[in-house]
Specification:
This protein is α/β, with parallel strands linked by helices and about 375 residues long. It folds into two domains: about 5-165, P-loop containing nucleotide triphosphate hydrolases (Rossmann fold); about 205-360. It has helices at about 5-10, 15-25, 40-50, 60-65, 85-100, 125-135, 155, 170-180, 185-195, 195-205, 210-220, 225-265, 270-310, 325-345, 350-360; strands at about 30-35, 75, 105-110, 140-145, 160-165. It is elongated. About 40% of the residues are buried.
Length: about 375
C-alpha cells in the first residue's frame, strides 16, 4: 500500500500512521483515534478514511476526502456542547450509517470530538452503541477524541484504539521552515504551539497578526479605562479580520464544491444533500469562530505572563520584549485570564470582557 499520501500530510506520527496502514489492509467496523487537537489526528482520520474507501492513491478521490466533501466519507461534529441524541445521532449519524455508499464499496463515518457523545445518562452514546455492535456491512465508524476516558467503556471496548502523541517541537520547526518560515520564527511558533502543528501553522499565517496584537497588550496597559477600551477595540478589530478570512474560506469551498458537482454530473438531489452537509459544518464553524479567536488571544496574553514567571528561563515569546512584573502580579494576571476564558465559553461579550480583563492586568514594573 502506498503510504506517501499520509507521510506528506501528517507530521511526526509514524507509529500511529503505521497502525492505520496496517488496519486499512484488513478493516474492522469501528476505530477510536486518540490524541490532542492539532496533533495531526484530524488529517490522519481523513487519510485513513481515504484508504478505507480505496482512494488513497487516487488524486481526485483523496482531494475530496481531505476537503470533507467525498460522498462516501461523512464527517460529524457536535452541534452544541454535546452530540444531541435526536438532532445529531438519530437524525444525522444513524441514517448515514445505514445509507449505502455512492461511489465505492464502503462508507466511512468520522465523528470528531467523540467525547461529547454524552448528555443525560449518556443518551447519545447509548444511541451509538447499536451501530457499533451491529454495524451495516459496508460502514466503518471512526471516533476521534482527545479525552477517551469521557467515552462510555462500552463504546471504547467496541473500537480498535490508535493513539497519537503531541508533535515534537523539532518536527514542527522543520515543517514550518519547509513551508517558508525563517528559522527564528519557526522556533518561536513551535514553542508557542504546544505540540500542535495545526496551531503553529495558524500562528504562522491567518492568526499571526491576532497573536501579535494580544501578546503586545500587557505592555500597553496603564490602569486607565480609556487605554483599556482603545486596546480592546483594536483587539476586537483583529478578531473581526480573522473571522472574515474564515467566511471567505467557506465561500471559496462552496464555490469549488458546486463546480466539482457540475463537472462530475451528480444528480441535483445528491449534490444538494452533500451541500447541506457543508453548509451545516460552516454554520457550526462560524458560530465557534469568534470564541476560538478570543480564546487564542487570551492564550497569547497568558503566554506573556508565563514568560514573566519563568524568567530568566528562555521565553516562549522570543520575538517580543520581556514583560517585567513581579511573580505575584503575573500570577494574578494568569488567574484573571483563566476567569476571562471561562466567561467567553459561557457568553462571548467580546469588547466588554476584554476591557474588564485589561483593567485587571498589572502595569509593567508592578510589584
Amino acid at each position: 500500500m502506498d503510504s506517501s499520501v499520509m507521510e506528506s500530510t501528517v507530521v511526526g506520527q509514524e507509529r500511529a500512521l503505521g497502525a492505520l496502514r496496517h488496519a486499512a489492509a484488513r478493516p474492522g467496523h469501528a476505530y477510536l483515534l486518540v490524541g490532542p487537537r492539532g496533533s495531526g489526528i484530524e488529517d490522519a482520520a481523513r487519510e485513513f478514511a481515504a484508504m478505507l474507501i480505496g482512494v488513497h492513491d487516487d488524486e481526485r478521490g483523496r482531494r475530496l476526502v481531505m476537503r470533507s466533501v467525498h460522498p462516501d466519507v461523512v464527517e460529524f461534529e457536535p452541534s452544541g456542547a454535546s452530540y444531541r441524541v435526536k438532532e445529531d445521532v438519530r437524525e444525522r449519524v444513524l441514517p448515514e450509517a445505514a445509507r449505502a455508499p455512492i461511489e465505492g464499496e464502503r462508507k466511512v463515518l468520522v465523528l470528531f470530538e467523540a467525547e461529547r457523545l454524552r448528555g443525560n445518562q449518556n443518551e447519545s452514546a447509548n444511541a451509538m452503541l447499536k451501530t457499533l455492535e451491529e454495524p451495516p456491512d459496508r460502514t466503518v465508524v471512526i471516533l476521534v477524541t482527545g479525552a477517551p476516558d469521557d467515552l462510555l467503556p462500552t463504546i471504547r471496548s467496541r473500537c480498535q484504539r490508535i493513539d497519537f502523541d503531541p508533535i515534537a517541537d523539532a518536527d514542527i520547526r522543520a515543517t514550518l521552515e519547509r513551508e517558508g518560515s525563517n528559522a527564528a520564527d519557526a522556533a518561536t511558533l513551535a514553542a508557542l504551539a504546544g505540540g500542535q502543528l495545526a496551531r503553529a501553522r495558524a500562528l504562522a499565517g491567518r492568526i499571526g497578526d491576532l497573536r501579535a496584537a494580544f501578546a503586545a497588550a500587557p505592555a500597553r496597559v496603564d490602569g486607565y479605562g480609556a487605554t483599556a477600551l482603545t486596546i480592546a477595540q483594536e483587539l476586537d478589530a483583529q478578531i473581526d479580520d480573522a473571522a472574515a478570512a474564515v467566511e471567505l474560506q467557506h465561500k471559496a469551498e462552496l464555490d469549488a464544491f458546486d463546480a466539482e458537482m457540475e463537472r462530475l454530473g451528480y444528480s441535483e438531489r445528491e449534490a444538494q444533500r452533500m451541500r447541506r452537509r457543508i453548509d451545516e459544518r460552516h454554520k457550526r464553524e462560524t458560530r465557534r469562530t469568534r470564541i476560538d479567536l478570543l480564546l487564542e488571544g487570551v492564550t497569547a496574553i497568558e503566554s506573556v505572563y508565563r514568560d514573566a514567571l519563568a524568567a530568566p528561563a528562555p521565553a516562549l515569546n522570543a520575538d517580543i520584549p520581556a514583560l517585567h512584573v513581579s511573580p505575584r502580579a503575573a500570577a494574578a494576571a494568569l488567574a484573571m485570564c483563566h476567569q476571562t476564558r471561562e466567561a467567553f465559553l459561557i457568553n462571548e461579550k467580546g469588547v466588554v470582557r476584554l476591557v474588564a480583563l485589561l483593567m485587571e492586568l498589572p502595569t509593567a514594573g508592578t510589584a
